[in-house]
């Protein structure tokens, strides 16, 4: 390993275990700078750990003017990958993140094999409570864990509060990927599972976060999938929204607050059919931002294929604003991301342009749109983006995806390119001019169009930097190609 990278890695590991926040954040930023220099696939404006594995976003919350992001994180401790912890970072703008010490280690008899997913809520007494899954043997043995912080999310005191003996049924763990809210002095917890052969979201109540009473599955008449992870229930403009982690599905309908039953009226709408999973819709921003509902998500994929750099795997998508438009879900990137737009790149649409390795394309068009990104001079590398009105879809494929599939595809649901094309339905009306935005960041691409978004991981060759319009340029009404500045500079 290059000596400067090795020195940055040693410094980061040292401060990670010593929990010195100011030194840790400096060391993490320094390590990321070297990762960006020596690994062409390390993202420059998407959140990613300095080293180790990053997974589910957890406990996303806002305290004062500061956003806090907790996430599944497996750091390297003692030269080996640790069990799943809760990593912690914070930001004033949802884009530039500062690393904080690990929040939750698996250090009790009830979570010793991992601090799994959950969320954080203000406790009404000036502190905060995290509810999460303590893993011993996955679904076979896990616990509901409560952790309380009274010092602004810096330190946590744990307590086991849900025992496997309390689980809803033999097929469902006692606590899995919970959603939290408060109403009329009662705390509500919604946890994933299954019932009668279908996915279920089980509702629990408590007055003290310690003693929990199981009520029922809130959606007994919604036979979707065999098992639900990540259940989220909230209301937008009088419509009840239920998100479940089976196909990144979203249902719209009504929620009876007396019977505590959700009734679906439309759906499923799939939020992102690409290399994306484990969304977190816990955070509703304050009135200054229009009370927007924010969606954080995990971008999946294999560990970096770059040799001789520290192991890293997984990153997070650009935070997305979730709203309803014409009775369908509508996703957009947070406006803060546009502050990273840098120099515009000249591009004659009749020819190929050369891009930086991190950029955004904004395109307005009628008809269909089709582009090739990360193309080499011989056309043997490239990522094809296609917006089809007839199919009402975004699709991402191309020779680089095919090559990645042959080189890197492995068994497992969170691996790269188990299919040769990712395709996302577009649910909105596609009449008239359409706008598409393509955020490309070294090894991750996010494509937004008409309220839909599709994410793909890809590993193009370093020299493949061409971008070319494949569809008829006469259908283009406007186009802008900009470099994107990094968030670790």
Strand segment count: 36
Oligomer: single chain
- Unreliable stretches: 413-417
Largest sheet: 6 strands, antiparallel
Q: Please give the radius of gyration in angstroms.
A: 22 Å
N/C terminus separation:
22 Å
Helix count? 3
Judged by helices, strands and strand pairing, the structural class is mainly beta
Integer average pLDDT: 94
If strands are numbered along the chain, what order do they take across the biggest sheet?
25-36-27-32-33-34
Strand content: over 45%
How would you sum up the global shape?
Answer: globular
Helical residues, percent: under 10%
Description:
With 489 residues, this protein is mainly β. It contains three helices and 36 strands. It has a six-stranded antiparallel β-sheet, with no helix packed on it. Strands 26-35-28-29-30-31 form a six-stranded antiparallel β-sheet. A hairpin with a 3-residue loop joins strand 8 and strand 9. Helix 1 packs antiparallel against helix 2. The chain is globular. The relative contact order is 0.12.
Provide tags for this entry.
489 residues, 36 strands
Please provide a brief summary of the model:
The protein is mainly beta and 489 residues long. It contains three helices and 36 strands.
Topology record:
Elements: H1 3-18, H2 21-38, E1 52-63, E2 66-74, E3 76-77, E4 80-81, E5 85-91, E6 98-104, E7 115-122, E8 128-137, E9 141-149, E10 157-162, E11 179-183, E12 186-195, E13 198-206, E14 213-217, E15 232-236, E16 239-244, E17 249-256, E18 261-270, E19 276-280, E20 293-299, E21 312-313, E22 315-316, E23 320-325, E24 328-333, E25 341-344, E26 353-354, E27 358-365, E28 369-375, E29 383-388, E30 393-397, H3 399-408, E31 422-425, E32 434-441, E33 444-449, E34 452-457, E35 466-469, E36 476-484
Parallel strand pairs: 1-21
Antiparallel strand pairs: 1-2, 2-5, 3-4, 5-6, 7-8, 8-9, 9-10, 11-12, 12-13, 13-14, 15-16, 16-17, 17-18, 19-20, 20-22, 20-23, 23-24, 25-36, 26-35, 27-32, 27-36, 28-29, 28-35, 29-30, 30-31, 32-33, 33-34
Helix pairs in contact: 1-2
